[in-house]
Amino acid sequence: MASVASGDHTSRVTSLHENEITVDEALVRSLLRAQCPQWAELPLRTTGAGTDNTMYRLGDDLLVRLPRKPDGGPSLRKEQQWLPRLAPLLPRRVPEPVHAGTPTDAYPVPWAVHRWIEGEDVGPDTVRDWAAFGTDLAEFVRELHRADLMGATREDGLSWYRGGTLAACDEWVGPGFDACRAVEGLDLDIDTLERLWREALALPDPAGPHVWLHGDLRPANLLARDGRLHAVIDFGALSIGFPDAEHAPVWDLPPEARHAYRDALSLDTPTWLRARAWAIAVAVAGIPYYWDTFPAFAAECRGRLEAILS
């Protein structure tokens, strides 16, 4: 769903997880022939892979998304169920599901075909004004959080840890600091990061209403066009809950974007400090897990922590 210039264009994708399902072009082509024969002969090429999905561009107008792990199907089903209802309420383009693929013996997980969204990776070469970009992102988050829940609750498969409280995650975040200390060459002030996490744990829990959450607004899930925010993609973490963690990925953006985002949403200090703690939590978990298998993602987590420390 990003521009075709991004991502890995090999026919196989490096494994990141012990239980990862092997995917290659031949497998994708077989799924299409069996379930979408009208598209089976269109050009097919890899267009990147995240931590949860492998993606292939199909022709000029379509994108195939395949979960990397056996438990990845529910994330795609959430997108297929809720994105058509949320899309009309949102100020930027979001993925449009066009086919819900079913499991097979060769690929025992649901998969999906979405409409391709043309856009560019978010970065210094594609964003003209970072403050305006932060305001654009804040507008999207505001409208998503205002969207009617349409009767949905966290019990409807829409519960994710990032919509809960910080305290509920301390059991795994705490060991993450020690795991980071053991990473050779990381060279970060882990003690200060752990102190910031502990200080946020002492804050009152969020008390506002539950809202719709994208769940993972890192730059890799944002597309730029003409220098501005054009689309928000990958709603696999779509959930309902408290909004604090939704703001955490703004530490992946330059300070101008981050400050404009906070100002546009009028986020108070406790919310901002909890959001920062969520940013720390996700990064300290990601670095030791992906340090050897996904260096680009580990570097993204490291950059987030460096921004917090600075």
TrEMBL record:
<dbReference type="InterPro" id="IPR011009">
    <property type="entry name" value="Kinase-like_dom_sf"/>
</dbReference>
<dbReference type="Pfam" id="PF01636">
    <property type="entry name" value="APH"/>
</dbReference>
<protein>
    <recommendedName>
        <fullName>Aminoglycoside phosphotransferase domain-containing protein</fullName>
    </recommendedName>
</protein>
<dbReference type="InterPro" id="IPR051678">
    <property type="entry name" value="AGP_Transferase"/>
</dbReference>
<feature type="domain" description="Aminoglycoside phosphotransferase">
    <location>
        <begin position="48"/>
        <end position="278"/>
    </location>
</feature>
<dbReference type="InterPro" id="IPR002575">
    <property type="entry name" value="Aminoglycoside_PTrfase"/>
</dbReference>
